[in-house]
Amino acid sequence: MISRAGLSVVRQARTQLRPRTGPSPVASLSSLARLLSSLAVLEQRDGKLNHGSLGAVTAAQKLGGSITAFVAGGNIKAVAEEAAKVNGIEKIIAVDNAAYDKGLPENYAPLLVENIRKGGYTHIIAGHTAFGKSLMPRLAALLDVQQISDITAIEDEKTFVRPIYAGNAIATVESSDNIKIITIRGTAFPAAEAEGGSASIEDGVDPKAECNTEWVSENLAKSDRPDLATAGKVVSGGRGLKSKEEFDRIMLPLADALGAAVGASRAAVDSGYADNSLQVGQTGKVVAPQLYLCAGISGAIQHLAGMKDSKVIAAINKDADAPIFQVADVGLVGDLFDKVPELTEKLNKQ
Ligand code: FAD
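A: This is the predicted complex of the input protein with flavin-adenine dinucleotide.
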């Protein structure tokens, strides 16, 4: 099956390999690695490196070849110095201009184009985050290449694996573009080690182009709890909680007892029980914590798309036939209004 220019979906059954002639595979792989050159686009906020974005460096390490990282924003020196310590990066390109602070894709994409021209990279990699999702398609359009979205594995320098149809099918895609624009799924590429590196820092090119989009303000949900996308434990509530008051009364003490982040199903979010930023699933956050404990969630495929890669899934539901039990490692059939407070009490006593 062939899709639009540059990208083809590879059939899973491959033709048999022909007998090899020429240099040994070890020699040819290492010479290929020397030709590969990745640019990892790192994220920063308020002058601090976002360590979640270091998954892009891990993906670049899997590809092999040289690794450069790109950062931009006001007072970028501190961010660049922090990034220079990340293991595996050879060079940091830093653009010091507050106009790039909020990562507006309309001005960030042309900025990257200028810096990519200079560097001759084969792969540009960013996280499949709100930033990466708005930036990378624009960048791909400006470079007239295909964007390869939300990959979970790298087969070789041109072949990538990505879930499609809310994770119900896995596509292996092959790109023939000479520059690959890739976003990576954070749960599949853990952050590279933040220490051990000693990259050089270089000033990037800043076209200082006029931008028609202006950043006005933001309204962020503030929480002292762990960040949902990267937390080791997540407790999640669904429509079964019945109201915001009950969601808070039942789920928040459990999250506190476990030191967990709080998540929610879309039905819970749409009903106003939980903030939109807490939604887990196809149209929410994709998480893969050590423990995902959910209550009053049926287990619709769109919800599973956001949590099924969790290491241990525990579910509480009063319906023994709820689909969530098909993916749960531990299941408890019962009324969440009894079971969750009981569990919280036991955890607090430990
Ligand atoms: P329900 O399906 O209504 O399930 C509630 C569950 O609570 C039931 O299983 C019930 O048995 C149980 N329950 C009720 N009372 C109790 C009790 N007292 N004790 C124990 N159990 C109880 N959904 C997402 O979650 N995330 C997404 O990102 C997402 N994206 C979507 C994208 C699209 C394009 C579409 C079409 C849908 C999407 N959905 C998403 C919605 C999804 O299809 C489901 O509607 C939603 O996940 C259902 O949420 P729920 O499990 O909380 O509610």
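Residues 128 and 183 are 5 Å apart (CA to CA). The chain has two domains: 33-203, 233-349.
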